């Protein structure tokens, strides 16, 4: 699979569920951008995707995804945005450091 541009739209944001990695706006946008995925889960630092006939792939979340997820989950403004996801190069998605 090649790199995919994912657009998180106002519709994804209105339909998304805070603090639910499987139905957050970013997960909904990834499902629209990559049809046929059996599993999508998004967090501030990691995105996990899987096709029905393939193992899961864990990808570093780009900083824009981490910033959006944290803001959305906290109820802060989280406007539409786009980002690139490259399942063939999981370590080349921009890495975000999350202090825990």
Feature tags:
100 residues; alpha+beta; three-stranded antiparallel beta sheet; two-stranded antiparallel sheet; 5 strands; globular
Characterise the protein shown here.
With 100 residues, the chain is α+β, with helices and mostly antiparallel strands. The chain has one domain (4-90). The protein has 3 helices and 5 strands; from the N terminus they run E-H-H-E-E-E-H-E. The strands form 2 sheets. A 3-stranded antiparallel beta sheet has the order 2-3-4, with helices on one face. Strands 1-5 form a two-stranded antiparallel ribbon. A hairpin with a 5-residue loop joins strand 3 (46-51) and strand 4. The longest helix is centred in the last third of the chain and has 12 residues, at 63-74. It is globular and about 35 Å long.
């Amino acid at each position: 699979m090649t790199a995919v541009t994912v657009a998180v739209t106002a519709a994804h944001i209105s339909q998304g569920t805070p603090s639910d990695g499987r139905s957050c706006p970013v997960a909904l946008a990834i499902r629209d951008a990559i049809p046929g995925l059996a599993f999508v889960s998004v967090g501030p630092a990691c995105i996990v995707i899987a096709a029905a006939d393939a193992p899961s792939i864990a990808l570093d979340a780009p900083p824009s995804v981490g910033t959006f997820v944290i803001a959305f989950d906290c109820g802060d403004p989280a406007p539409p945005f786009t980002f690139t996801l490259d399942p063939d190069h999981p370590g080349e998605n921009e890495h975000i450091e999350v202090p825990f």
